[in-house]
Write a structure and sequence with these properties.
113 residues; 3-stranded mixed β-sheet; 36% helix; alpha+beta
């Protein structure tokens, strides 16, 4: 099943996406989320696994980031076991890579949202 959502940003795409991710975190009861962040004072975004929803204020899902393959990061976390449902913000190419890695290595992705 393919689901598409449209988010009305009202000129604040970053703020609205952070609010959406926070609402998703709460409604799904997530224990964490893997996504690009840009903490205040940093000059370059990096991928981090957040365990606290309040840290979504640092999230930047639009960051031009390709320092590592997030599909590999997600697959490795899934392989080692996860506590509760978690989320991951991935680009379409990373989703395809994740599905290929999970299929090849028999890694369950049922904990991911």
């Amino acid at each position: 099943m393919n689901t598409q959502w449209f988010l009305k940003t009202s000129g604040d795409a970053l703020g609205r996406s952070r609010a959406f991710l926070g609402a998703l975190w709460q409604s799904a009861g997530l224990t964490g989320m893997l996504l690009p962040v840009l903490p205040e004072g940093d000059h370059a975004p990096h991928v981090e696994f957040l365990r606290e929803a309040r840290r979504l204020a640092e999230a930047d899902p639009f960051a031009p980031l390709m320092t590592s393959n997030r599909a590999r990061d997600v697959a490795e976390r899934a392989r080692t076991g996860l506590e509760g449902p978690v989320g991951a913000v991935l680009r379409p190419c990373e989703i395809r890579a994740l599905l290929a890695v999970a299929r090849r290595r028999s890694i369950p992705l049922d904990s991911y949202l």
